[in-house]
Design a protein that fits this description.
With 77 residues, the protein is mainly beta. The protein contains one helix and seven strands.
Length: 77
Amino acid sequence: MMPLIPGAIYEHVKTAGRYRLVGVGKHSETLEDFVVYESLGEHPVSKLWIRPLSEFVGEAKSPDGSFHPRFKLAEEK
């Protein structure tokens, strides 16, 4: 699993959007791990996002059709 570093910048494989990792927290009822991250660009829907940890560190299809980690570390804090 890739390192998750609060404050570090990650890049999304599909959109090339950049996000600052806020941290990893737990769902209050299921105790599932969720990643909280902040969009560094303009986004019409939200500035803050959450995603299950398994999805954040999982794979996604890139624009060329191949599969890669959904997020990659772009800059450490």
